[in-house]
Each structure stands twice: as structure tokens, then as C-alpha cells.
Specification:
The complex is a heterodimer of chains A (143) and B (380).
Chain A lengths: L10 E2 L4 E2 L7 E7 L5 E3 L14 E5 L3 E10 L10 E8 L4 E6 L14 E13 L5 E9 L2
Parallel strand pairs in A: 1-10
Antiparallel strand pairs in A: 2-3, 3-4, 3-5, 6-7, 6-9, 7-8, 9-10
Chain B lengths: L3 E8 L10 H16 L8 E5 L8 H9 L5 E5 L5 H14 L5 E8 L26 H16 L3 H15 L13 H6 L2 E4 L1 E2 L9 E9 H7 L5 E10 L12 H16 L8 E3 L5 H10 L8 H6 L16 H4 L4 H16 L13 E8 L3 E9 L2
Parallel strand pairs in B: 2-3, 2-4, 9-10
Antiparallel strand pairs in B: 1-7, 1-8, 4-7, 5-6, 8-11, 10-11
Helix pairs in contact in B: 1-2, 3-12, 4-9, 5-9
């Protein structure tokens, strides 16, 4: 096996986070040309209408509204709790799950339909076994 | 096509049996169901076995190696928490198809303790607690909060489900727990994923359940006095809905299955005497009152508040104690539910008997997603 050089700059937490090393990271969806369904990540066919080969990439919005959530108090070892796990509907389509940050994790502080921004930051200091750092997306209350 | 009847059905008491193997647990339940039918393994024409944890290791054959290697065909199946129901349905279908007259279905599981699920393994870094949570308590908490969003359902209402099901299990000697859990105890238990506390999460237990299914011809031969008729057997997968791939939609898949089940049975929700539904978390049970048509949309909170779903109420739900208190051995659950409903239809449920039970429904959800629904009818 050849020696692998450490990758420069952070890697994306999911392969549909684009521009991880740049100053303009964004999330990429794929949209069905036949029915308009929007998916996270690449795919060939549409599971909504069954159309084949009509997917095209689309840049997902960084504006959305909180659809649902829960507050996680018990997780696996090494994962900081409590935190808010949020489901967010993006403007223009696409639904994401992620951590809602900069809000105290108490149900009294979380409102359905509260506007949120998608923001990008280091993946809580997590590194893979090769020591690479990652960039992730988070939700925070809209500016 | 022949009607299909349950002639024998039983389950082991759910608990933790680390000294036993999965095939041993399955074999115990299989023998109990055969005894209940007054039949032997030599009478069986096929075995349909549901197990998740050892899905690739021929559990059905290993059960026969414990109780009798008769050379019959064995189907091993895995379908998340719908595994047991899927095995039962495959058995049912082989009789419907006219291929078999007498078959055995077994569901069995040995569980560890702790959280199930978790977001993203694979390459790179763990996504759990980074891209939200993929643990089962969190996923079903989010599904519950969607109900809160639509209908104002409260933490207290969700918690009442757990109070009810724990109470029911005090009447069920085969349940893992027989303990009362008052509302304050449920609400003040360790919070796992708001709004689900520890007492609002199903119990990981070992368990096994089995059923002997027969054709009408065979049922008449054997005698119908304790037979239970399978009026509907439905399996559905998750249809496309806008958020399903991010937030598993357990509602749409249940609604599809319920509609088909009522159609196949030729009855409506108003005819159902009792329901064993998939209360993997207290939040989930609330959703399914509406999904199964037991009440109008938005009425589930009132149902639990007014005790309509408790033993003695209009439509008792999970009188076995449910997954929350009887326990949830994943692959066994779908057949254990069928045991519970059959026991009521036979009038043999003792202290927890739902009086006058004529039709009963079982419902399971395997996340990912599979929904299995059976409607059973009292015969004699």
C-alpha cells in the first residue's frame, strides 16, 4: 500500500456537503426533473415518482424552519449530552436532521417553525483514524 | 382460497436468558405451540422462522436440530421489528396458496441491553450527536413531537401510555415486568430523549413465540373449539413522503397497512375488541391510535386521558403490557402479539381478559420501514 498523505483542509461530514475546504461550503441536493422531489446526496432514480435518470444537482438553501425535534440526554459513550436533535425543512425543499446549536437544550426554548440558519463549522473536534478533521453543518436560530 | 386458522400459539415468559442459545429459546416456544395444538413437529410441513440478531445463521434449521430434523422446508426471515409478523405472514401465505395445510411459525430474539440505533457508521467519523441522533428513543421522540406539533400532545399524555401499559402487565405473568409505575414515576425517570423517559422506552429482553397455522380442511379435522381465524394479514413498506428518508414516517406505512387490513377482513375499527400495537416507545403508541383508525386524527390525547385504551375501556390497547413492559425481543414481538390477541379471543386471558372479544388486531413496525398488521377472529 502506498503512503497516503494527510489530506489538506477539512473533509466533508457527508459527501453531499460541498466545498468543505473553501470559504463557501454548501449542501447539495438532487432534484427530480419529473416530479420535483428533492433528495440529499446523489442518486439515479426517483423514489417518489419512479422517473429514471432525471436527477440534477441543486444547491440547498441555508434558510429553514424547525419541523420537529427531541432533546437527547442519553447517547453512546463519548458523546456530549444534552443536545437538540432537530428536523428542519429548508426553503425551496429538502429536509435535514442535525444538531440545533446556540439554544439551551430545554423544550421551553424550542418552538415549532422557528426559523433557523444552516451554518458550517468544525465537526466538534472529531477526527477519523487518520487524523483528518471534518466540517459539518449545524442549525442555529436565524440571525 | 382456504381460510387460515391458528390451532396452537404460545410464548415463553419474556426475560433475560444469557445461558440459553437463540435456537433453544425458539425451540421452547415451538414445542409450547405444538403442545397447544396437540400436534408434533412430525405433523409440520414447513417452518417459517423470524430472527434478527442471527439473521444469516439458519436459526430455523437450528431450531429443528433441537426438536426434530424432519427435512421440511425452512424459511428464515428478517424484517426489523416486523420480523415475527413477516414469518407468520409467510406461513399464512403458504396455506392461502394451497401449498401447505399445517405449518409452524417461530419468532425469537436474544437482546443485549442499552440503546439501539445510532446515526451513521461507515467511513469517516461518527455522526451521532453531530448530525442529530439516530438512536431509536430519539427517532421516536421526534415522531412524537411531530404529533405535538400537529395536535398539541403533551409530555404528560405520552407518559400516561407507559402508566397504562405497565399497569396492564401486572396482570400478565408472561411479561418481563409486573410493576405499577405511577405518572410521577414515569415522568421523573431518567430522561433518555425528550419526551421519552427510560420508563417510556421498550424493554430489551430475550423472548420467543410460536404459532401453528392450518388450513380450513385441517382445522375441521382437528376441531375448531379453540381455533382462531386469521381474517387479514398485511405487510406494507414505507411509501414516499416528503421527510421519510430523513425522519422515518411510521404513520404513512401504518395507514396503508391498516386500510388494507380492514378491507381484507371486511370490518372496520369499530368492530375491533382489542389491539396489540407497536409501542416501542410511549410516543409511538399515541400516533398509532389515529393511524389504525381507533380514533379521529387529533383525538389520541383525549383517548389516553379518558382511559378509552385501558383494560375496561372502549378499545383496550396493549393489555399484555406492550413492548414497554412485557418487553420487546425484536424478532419475537410480532408472534407474541398474535399469542396475546388469540388468548383473548379464546377467552383464556384470565385477569386481563377483554370481555366478549370477537375481533382483535396486531400491529408492528420495523423501522426502515415495514408494517405488519393481522386481524384475528374468534371462531367458537
Amino acid at each position: 500500500m502506498s503512503e497516503q498523505a494527510t489530506v489538506e483542509g477539512p473533509l466533508p461530514v457527508v459527501d453531499w456537503l460541498k466545498g468543505a475546504g473553501s470559504n463557501d461550503p454548501y449542501l447539495e441536493g438532487h432534484k427530480c426533473g419529473a416530479c420535483g422531489a428533492i433528495y440529499l446526496g446523489e442518486r439515479d432514480n426517483c423514489s417518489s415518482c419512479g422517473a429514471r435518470g432525471q436527477m440534477s444537482p441543486t444547491r440547498l438553501s441555508t434558510k429553514g424552519k424547525l419541523y420537529s425535534f427531541c432533546i437527547v440526554h442519553r447517547s453512546f459513550p463519548g458523546i456530549d449530552v444534552p443536545y437538540i436533535s432537530a428536523i428542519v425543512d429548508l426553503e425551496g425543499g429538502g429536509t435535514l436532521k442535525g444538531n440545533l446549536i446556540n439554544v439551551e437544550p430545554d423544550p421551553a426554548n424550542v418552538e415549532f417553525d422557528m426559523p433557523v440558519d444552516v451554518v458550517f463549522d468544525d465537526a466538534l473536534g472529531r477526527k477519523d483514524k487518520d487524523g483528518n478533521s471534518y466540517i459539518s453543518y449545524f442549525f442555529q436560530p436565524a440571525a | 382460497m382456504s381460510d387460515v386458522y391458528i390451532m396452537g400459539v404460545d410464548m415463553i415468559k419474556f426475560g433475560r436468558f444469557p445461558e440459553k442459545t437463540v435456537p433453544q429459546l425458539g425451540a421452547t416456544a415451538a414445542l409450547m405451540a405444538l403442545d397447544d395444538a396437540s400436534l408434533t413437529i412430525q405433523d409440520m410441513q414447513a417452518l417459517y422462522c423470524g430472527n434478527l440478531g442471527q439473521a444469516s445463521s439458519m436459526v430455523g434449521q437450528r431450531i429443528l436440530q433441537e426438536i426434530g430434523q424432519t427435512g421440511i422446508g425452512v424459511v428464515n426471515c428478517a424484517n426489523a421489528c416486523a420480523t415475527g409478523a413477516t414469518a407468520f405472514r409467510e406461513a399464512w401465505m403458504s396455506i392461502k396458496a394451497g401449498v401447505n395445510d399445517v405449518v409452524l411459525a417461530v419468532g425469537v430474539e436474544q437482546m443485549g441491553k442499552g440503546l439501539l440505533g445510532g446515526a451513521g457508521g461507515g467511513t469517516g467519523i461518527s455522526k451521532e450527536g453531530l448530525l442529530g441522533s439516530g438512536t431509536m428513543p430519539a427517532v421516536f421522540a421526534e415522531a412524537g413531537m411531530e404529533h405535538s406539533r400537529k395536535h398539541g400532545t403533551t409530555f404528560e399524555q405520552f407518559a400516561k401510555v407507559s402508566v397504562k401499559n405497565h399497569h396492564h402487565s401486572t396482570l400478565n405473568p408472561k411479561a418481563m415486568y409486573q410493576i405499577e409505575t405511577p405518572l410521577e414515576t414515569v415522568m421523573n425517570a431518567e430522561m433518555i430523549s425528550y419526551p421519552n423517559t427510560k420508563l417510556m422506552c421498550s424493554v430489551n429482553v430475550d423472548g420467543a413465540a410460536a404459532a401453528v397455522l392450518v388450513s380450513e380442511k385441517k382445522a375441521k379435522e382437528l376441531g375448531m373449539s379453540r381455533a382462531v381465524r386469521v381474517k387479514a394479514s398485511i405487510l406494507a413498506s414505507d411509501p414516499y413522503t416528503d421527510r421519510d428518508l430523513t425522519m422515518p414516517d411510521v404513520n404513512a406505512v401504518t395507514r396503508i397497512a391498516a386500510k388494507q387490513a380492514y378491507e381484507m377482513a371486511g370490518i372496520g375499527p369499530e368492530d375491533i375488541s382489542l389491539v396489540e400495537l407497536h409501542d416501542c416507545f410511549a410516543t409511538a403508541e399515541i400516533l398509532h391510535y389515529e393511524n389504525l383508525g381507533l380514533c379521529a386524527d387529533g383525538d389520541a390525547g383525549r383517548m389516553i386521558d379518558e382511559g378509552e385504551v385501558a383494560l375496561g375501556g372502549r378499545i383496550p390497547v396493549n393489555v399484555s403490557g406492550g413492548l414497554l413492559s412485557k418487553g420487546h425481543p425484536l424478532g419475537a414481538t410480532g408472534i407474541a402479539n398474535i399469542y396475546e390477541v388469540s388468548t383473548h379471543l379464546r377467552g383464556e386471558a384470565d385477569k386481563r381478559q377483554v370481555e366478549g372479544a370477537k375481533f382483535g388486531m396486531t400491529h408492528v413496525i420495523g423501522l426502515g420501514s415495514a408494517c405488519g398488521i393481522h386481524i384475528l377472529e374468534k371462531v367458537a
